[in-house]
């Protein structure tokens, strides 16, 4: 074999190479593939296609051995080359391995020492621990035995004490009657002590699963040994159970008697007994269940129509030896016309008895809660209410009120759904039904903290009343129907009597209950709003509704007068209800009352404005009269044409318009308001009438006399009643306006020097005096200066304050003084003008001083 023949090492480097398989392949003259899957016998040999002779096989084997030897030599040379090439690194690694062996030797030595120490520690701990564990087990057993002996001793001592206590409990009072109460008190205390002893005995002999141990006991509940199997204890157990039953019975009797008689001391003793027995939470829960259950049964019976039917039929059916099959087979749920009164009487009798039963149960619940709240355990200081509420979600009183309201709502709703009689009776006579609950609240008020008055309602009372809200809803719906019918009648007949009578009756029926009264008041408000809407729609607003052409009132004015009268009468009688009902009711009614007032004022304002407008237009015609004529040219005593028209207009209003309104005092206000308007406008127009001569002054005086007489007649008989109802009104009630008319007559004939004297202008506004001064002087009037008409100037004065009018006149004076007209006057006229201007300034000064003084007084009072 050539030394440089290539050697294939891939076969030998394959991970699956097997030397035995390779040798077998050579011997079998087969090729070897290590990656080929093994045959069934586990060989990877691949068979050759033909057979070879043994010689050929031997040569092949020799050749394979030669190749292997050559490969071995080649690998050895390669290894030698690698070692030679890397001999320094290999020597360094060898040195490192030597050092590592020394370190590992020292670690191995340390580990051996640790194992030796661990063996010594095990020998020092394991044996004492096992001994200690055995002692602990022995100690626990001794403690358990000691606990059993201690509890047994305690049990025997308490059992003997219980025997003495039960003798005291069973002892009959043999003393005189005078000491019986003391003996009864001693018995209650003995029962409480016996209960405490029984509770302790039961805790001593019961197993942990039956009764938990005391929290300060030494052994845990899992290792506590029951005493049932101890003979010294077992012989006492029957007596303890008997005593337990006896004390429990006595406790229940005491609780029953205490609640029945409302004896708080007896109830406190019984609750102390229950606490000592450890059954206080269960007792309170059972008591509340019994009381609420009793109330529920009584409520169900009171509203049971079938029972009412049986009761009335038993009373009506005559005694007969032959029973009626029809009576047994049929039970009426609705009364007939004949039996309806008997059914109604039976229902109210049941409800009255129900109130008594509810009051009794409620007082018992509150008595129980008071005792629970005040009573504490003398030893532990635990409040019984906290202990008793362990099984309750709320306080007993809250639980009772909730159960009571639910029972009332449930049974009334169910029975009313099935019985039309019950629904109609309780809804129609709801005030009577509600009064029963008022009686209920009054009966329990002494014993509870519930309040139900006009100003304050406890949440409990409101909760109960909500349970019967279905009947209140039906009652209020019927009340609304009655109110709406009254509104329709008022709209049709224009008569407020029916609506006032109806709403007063509805409010009066609900007067006794604050919540019902407010609900009815809200219904009344809705009806009044409906009335306002419907009457407001009937108000006529066309031209004929405000026409004053005469000779009488128009149909539109008559219709509007009826609407206004109806609204006013409704408003007036509603205002009278303010003193009759509680403030909370009036608060609800007051907005509607103001709306009614605004409605009739809104309806009357166009007519009143027309009257003011017509009279003002007629008075403005005053300036068409020539008042500058001398005295000889006038015809004395005759009134002016405008005054005749004004008197005719006032007479039309007095006799045809105002009598259509049935509005009482409001009509007097209209009359006085109209009178003031006429007087104010007449005086203003008369004060600016220019030029003014002596004959004009006499004519104005005559007109003023005619006006005063007409207004006196207008005021005194303005309501068309012949003077009886209107005789209380006088023209003097116009106040400053009438005094201005009276003061204007002498002002016409006063000397110029007296115009600035307050004594000669009493009752006259400064503006009227200023107007008269300007009329007498050459200074033009303010309306002339500004290019206004007399009517426009009067309207301006009427809508502005007096100080603004004074400022306007002063501006006119200053403007005239600077004008060329003033400079063109001759000396005499100039002096005359300056004199009047000085008078005007004096009047202005006095007026402003007086206004400033009055404002100071007003501010000082504030």
Automatic annotation (TrEMBL):
Record keyword Membrane present: yes
Highest taxon of source: Eukaryota
Membrane-related topology note: Peripheral membrane protein
Keywords, sorted A to Z: Golgi apparatus, Membrane
Conserved oligomeric Golgi complex subunit 5 N-terminal domain ranges (all copies): 12-162
Subcellular location, record wording: Golgi apparatus membrane
Listed GO biological process terms: intra-Golgi vesicle-mediated transport
Residue ranges of every copy of the Conserved oligomeric Golgi complex subunit 5 helical domain listed in the record: 227-441
Family matches, as InterPro entries: Cog5, COG5_helical, COG5_N
Region (Disordered): 205-225, 314-336
Principal localisation: Golgi
One Gene Ontology CC term in the entry: Golgi membrane
This protein's name: Conserved oligomeric Golgi complex subunit 5
Lineage: Eukaryota, Fungi, Dikarya, Basidiomycota, Agaricomycotina
